[in-house]
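agent> fetching stored inputs for the zinc ion docking request
agent> found them:
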Amino acid sequence: MPLNRRFRRVIRIGPVQVGTAPDHRGREKHTAACTAPRCGFSADYDSRAAAELAARTHRCPVR
Ligand SMILES: [Zn+2]
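agent> prediction call returned; pasting tokens
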């Protein structure tokens, strides 16, 4: 599922989007989310680098 408009600094690495948004406590979280239909990969990380690494290493089962 694509990231929604709350996310800032959204980039795309292959089928995966990485974006930054405040969580419910107002702290930044970094999310990697695959846009491929039926994949469903989405995960939150404490650092932008970790989220981008996850995006680069995501092996999408749909492709
Ligand atoms: Zn995927």
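agent> quick read of the result: The beta strands are 8-13, 16-22, 28-34, 42-45.
agent> awaiting further instructions
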